[in-house]
Amino acid sequence: MATTYELKKIIGVLEQQEEDWTRMQKRLEKKVANAPEGSILVKTCKGKYPQYYYSDGKIIKNRYLGIKDRQMIHDLLQKKYDTKLLRRLADNNKILRAFIEGFEPELLENVAYSFSKEQMKEIRAVSLSDQEFTKQWKTEMEKKKENNPISFPLKGDILTEQGEPVRSKSEKIIADKLQRHAIQYVFEVPLMLNGYGVVYPDFTILDLKKRKTIYLEHFGMMDDEEYCSRNLKKIQAYAKNGLWFGEDLLYVFETAASPLSSSYLERLFNKYLL
């Protein structure tokens, strides 16, 4: 089932299409207004060859258009095409506008919100509110983390602005930026990669708009040959398990000479998370 975010994107596409068709209508209206007077009639000779006749809509007998009238044939056929397209565009834009105005991307949420909180306790809603969905997602991630704790615990020397321990100053930067953007995450939730084993992505993130889990890995010692080789295999394992950069997985790299860029991180979040 499509999410509310995906449905809103569809409406956005349809609204853009309506704008494009409206601009096209205006151009065609000008073309038709400046086209030659009259219309063209098309007949076939022996059921095979087209014959063209000019009609001004007044005289009974239409004038045959021959080779010497090729420009008029072209102009009147173009007018006929433009007029037909103009009419169809107008009809479809009316249908499109009626659909956009009548469609309700937040239907499931709106119905749920029409009931009080006390009433909703007795109802099994089809769709959870963002707040309830976030709460359930976070509980699920914390439970995964609790049931499969990482073998090398945190020391607690480096704390985020929220007082959560992380392993490096760069991870603190990432965590604080996620927090400032109100992006929900859980640190080091276990994830099984088939053919590789259990990994602990630095950040397991909720993309609330898509109601989808995304993983963010910070590779902080890429100038260390052994570390680099090990983590390249890890990235390949993500891909083999269907987790691709920009869709399900984000990662940032740094070396001693090229530390983590806060501005790059901001652009990355704007591109994929906000």
For the largest sheet, list the strands in their spatial order: 6-9-10-11
At the third CATH level, what is the topology name of the largest domain? Trna Endonuclease, Chain: A, domain 1
End-to-end Cα distance: 22 Å
Taking all Cα atoms into account, the compactness measure Rg is: 31 Å
Shape: elongated
| Total count of domains | 2
Task: Kindly state the percentage of residues in helix.
Answer: 40-55%
SSE order: HEEEHHHHEEHEEEEEHEH
* Secondary structural class: alpha+beta
Number of strands: 11
CATH architecture of the largest domain: 3-Layer(aba) Sandwich
What is the residue-mean pLDDT, rounded to a whole number?
A: 90
CATH class of the largest domain: Alpha Beta
Beta-strand content bin: 15-25%
- Separate helix tally: 8
Largest sheet: 4 strands, mixed
As residue ranges, the low-confidence spans are none
What would you note in describing this structure?
The protein has 274 residues and is α+β, with helices and mostly antiparallel strands. The chain has two domains: 4-108; 130-272, Trna Endonuclease, Chain: A, domain 1, CATH 3.40.1350. 48% of the residues lie in helices and 18% in strands. The chain contains eight helices and eleven strands. Strand 2 (49-55) and strand 3 (63-65) form a beta hairpin. The longest helix is centred in the first third of the chain and has 33 residues, at 70-102. It is elongated and about 95 Å long. The relative contact order is 0.08. The mean pLDDT is 90.
